[in-house]
């Protein structure tokens, strides 16, 4: 029972983090379009790339959590 509870928690936590990251990415893409050809375009591009990077990491996180549930190592994510 505890193992399934921990797996459900890990999946839910990853899901809860992916949603705000997706919203951040959408907003920064809009901002980047508005800032084209300005001194701030490069900064918006950097933020967009970092948001994508975080999103990719979150895609890997649920498997890292659930593959190690029970042995408490959690792949270094916690």
Describe this structure in words.
There is one protein chain. With 78 residues, this protein is mainly α. The chain has one domain. Helices cover 77% and strands 0% of the residues.
Quick tags:
single chain, 78 residues, mainly alpha, 0% strand, rod-shaped, disordered C terminus
Structural class: mainly alpha
How many helical elements?
2
Our measurement of the CA-to-CA distance between the termini, rounded to an integer number of angstroms, reads 22 Å
N to C succession of SSEs:
HH
- The number of distinct structural domains comes to 1
Helical content class = over 70%
Number of E-state strands: 0
Q: Which value, in Å, is the CA radius of gyration?
A: 17 Å
Overall pLDDT metric? 80
Shape: rod-shaped
Query: Low-confidence parts, pLDDT < 50 over ≥5 residues?
Result: 71-78
Strand content: under 5%
What is the topology?
Elements (H helix, E strand, L loop, with lengths): L1 H33 L6 H27 L11
Tell me briefly what this model is:
By secondary structure, this protein is mainly alpha-helical. The protein is 77% helix and 0% strand.
């Amino acid at each position: 029972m505890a193992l399934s509870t921990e797996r459900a928690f890990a999946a839910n936590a990853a899901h809860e983090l992916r949603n705000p990251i997706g919203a951040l990415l959408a907003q920064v893409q809009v901002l980047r379009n508005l800032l084209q050809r300005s001194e701030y375009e490069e900064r918006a591009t950097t933020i967009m790339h970092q948001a994508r990077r975080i999103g990719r990491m979150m895609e890997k996180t649920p498997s890292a959590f659930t593959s190690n549930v029970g042995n408490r190592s959690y792949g270094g994510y916690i």
